[in-house]
Write a structure and sequence with these properties.
The protein has 161 residues and is an alpha+beta fold. The longest helix has 18 residues. The termini are far apart. It catalyses: (4aS,6R)-4a-hydroxy-L-erythro-5,6,7,8-tetrahydrobiopterin = (6R)-L-erythro-6,7-dihydrobiopterin + H2O.
């Protein structure tokens, strides 16, 4: 006989630090490099290299980062509500479907991290830069906030008595 689980599933508080520790390290496979370093991104074969590099320059000035291998763009957007995080995730998903170019997205309580790269041929392409601009446009419409203003997971701050 199968056991049914009532949702929402509540985690034992003693497991929470362990899970948070593992989650924190799950996506740290590459180091971020300074955008001030010499930019030598790997451009996908068959792309107009000067056009893609010019678009990358603008994106890097607007908060996007290149990973260590310089083949992937990454940016984290912060929001006041989890619903707005999901709104951006959905907008990017719909835009990705229409462009037939899909990102890796990491959804957290008050933020969404988006990664763009082209797998075949490997490197950065005009599809990546186009979709990164699309993400910025949609995030602006939804209303991003500074990281310090983003909603945090956990109990509200206790008031001083």
């Amino acid at each position: 006989m199968a056991t049914r689980v009532a949702w929402p599933l509540r985690l034992n508080r003693s497991l929470t630090p362990l899970l948070q520790s593992r989650q924190r390290h799950a996506f740290t496979t590459t180091k971020q490099i300074s955008n001030d370093a010499i930019m030598q991104p790997k451009i996908s074969e068959g792309q107009d290299e000067s056009k893609v590099k010019a678009e990358l320059k603008v994106l890097l000035e607007n908060g996007w980062k290149l990973n260590e291998e310089q083949i992937q763009l990454e940016k984290t957007y912060h929001f006041k509500t989890y619903t707005k995080v999901l709104d951006l995730h959905t907008c990017i998903g719909v835009g990705s479907k229409s462009k037939n170019h899909h990102s890796k997205m990491i959804t957290e309580f008050g933020s969404l991290t988006v990664h763009w790269t082209t797998h075949k041929p490997n490197g950065l392409s005009s599809n990546d830069t186009f979709m990164a601009r699309y993400c910025d446009d949609q995030a602006k419409l939804i209303g991003t906030v500074d990281q310090s203003e983003a909603q945090k997971c956990g109990p509200p701050p206790s008031s001083q008595i």
